[in-house]
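Tutorial sheet, problem 5. The two components below are modelled jointly, 687 residues in total.
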Amino acid sequence: MNTLSENTMNNPAKTAAEPGWLAERRAEGLAQFKTLPAPAPNDELWRFASVGRLKIDDYAPTGAPDAATAEALLERSNLVSERAGRSVYVDDHAVCFEGISEALKAQGVLYLPIEAALQSHPELMERYFLKESTELGSAKFFGLHAASTRAGSVLYVPKGVEIEQPLVNYYWTSTQGTAVFPHTLIIAEANAKASVVDVFFSETKENEALNIAVSNLHAADGAQVFRKVVQDWNEQTTSFQLDTTIAGRDARVKNLAVNIGAERARYENQTRIEGPGANVKMYSLTVAEEKQEFDQRTFQTHNAPNAVSDLLYKNALLDNSRTIFSGLIKVAEGAQQTDAYQTNRNLLLDPTAEANALPGLEILANDVRCSHGATTGNLDADELFYMMQRGIPRRAAMQLMVFGFFEEVIEKVDSEELAENLRQLIHKKFDAKIA
Amino acid sequence: MNALEIKNLNVSIEGQSILKDFSLTIPKGEVHALMGPNGTGKSTLAKVMAGHEDYQVESGTVTLDGENILGEEPDVIAHAGLFLAFQYPLEIPGVSIANFIRAARAARLPNGETINAVEYYKELYEKMDALKMDRKFTARSLNDGFSGGEKKRCEILQMSMLDPAYCVMDETDSGLDIDALKTVSEGVNLMRGPERGFLVITHYQRLLDYIVPDVVHVMFDGRIVHSGPAELAHELEAKGYDWVKESFATTA
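Model answer (structure tokens):
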């Protein structure tokens, strides 16, 4: 088998139909991937990360799944039953693209596979596709994504149009050794409203995979967007998620990620506030066990005044797992009256687990309210005593407390069905550990 | 014997002796008040009985109806029939009152039996109504952001839902205004009966105007130094704890 870099070079994702601007962006991405150095242990943006465990050359894109696999995974793509649309990809091949209603189409809403959008809406795609990346250390991997991505969906919501139900994208891996490059592009025009759920799943516990996913979210003035990420790869997966949000005037954006799987997951989440009065929330919940490593890098940039950004990242750690939270708030000179908050809470359930926190502030304006804080602790012994005094056995009490710790994020999911499905996913991982 | 019996209990924490040959018997059907100045060991007694691991038991016994509970895990002691209403109930974020009490009830069921949700909520709502608690509280995180009065009502709600044979109430009156004190006391009085014993720990006589005890004990320096009828609480209130210190310090 060719290595990933050879494969990408010899067999680029572009097809004959791809426009020149895209060929350029892909070539640029490939060059970026090839020339930028691999992350090194002394690199500030990779501090505490086990860069030695990053192996990406053993993976390559693989062919379409057989019909039986496709059908089985389609069946399992069922976290959200009330939805406006759904896409299901297996190893980056679309096995289902359930489009939106005629009524939404009539209002100008687009929900399309990337490839279809490139054909039908080249100008829109030229403006937004592969234009935005995080500045948190993964430019090399973004380059590989840009060169390789062929799977994903585009949601475009025109001015003033509101979509009540979510669009749900499922990205599966199935074939041993596959490399996937899922891409989610969300464009909400002024006063539009939408929500998107991206789900990352593996077919089995064993299939090894590399994921380099990118999501770019554009919320124009007054737009309201809620994006939820459910990451439950198997523990044979190396995963990168590079997510950006750009918020315009008075835009309201919520990002919520639940991270359960992967052997090693790097999650970069960058918010750029470009319009006054914007309000962006960033929530994350991570359950780490065994030798899992979750490496979280966040960046809240305020380039406009009177805006709010609020980040809450909660990690629960078992066994020998590791988490890294590195968050930066940057307030530009003119961004007065900014409210920017950053909270990282780590719950250590085993003494062998390791939580690293690197909160940071860079404030150039003088009239702002900013706070950052990181706490790391065990389950509270007095709380445990209190619960046991009511007759609840130790293990059950611990489980209630841990799920209570999670609930602060889960209750923000704003869909009882999805919240319950998330609790079940966490239970599945957790119960055997603590029961 | 049908009683909560504490015999010659000696307890220390970090080498410092707190309970000194403490003995007390509360027969079922009776309400005993334990009064005394701060730092005399009242709360230690409550926590030790409930199985708190921070305390070192040197010697003595604690039995419920003849069954030893000393050295058992807190949940085992709870199942044996002891309930402790906390002076400072803990806040448990993300765990709703309804789910918490349900988990505590479920832990008491024999294997294979489950809780009937409809009956459970009916009973829970009735008891909340009696304690003048908003039914919406069932979905709120346990004690999270509650006022002092709400926390104490929530303790009494748990106590009545779990139906213990012996209730130990640690400074339940602290932080309560007079209305909350009356409501909480009514909740307790409803639970009084021949099948239940109470130990009401308090610093002030005020609570005992509403929960009238059968016996009042005065505690000083790790042991009971004086016992008497309900009127003793008033005498103590009138004379103050200095009187206790002066009268009993020499014998301590």
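Marking note: The mean pLDDT of chain B is 93. Full credit if you identified this.
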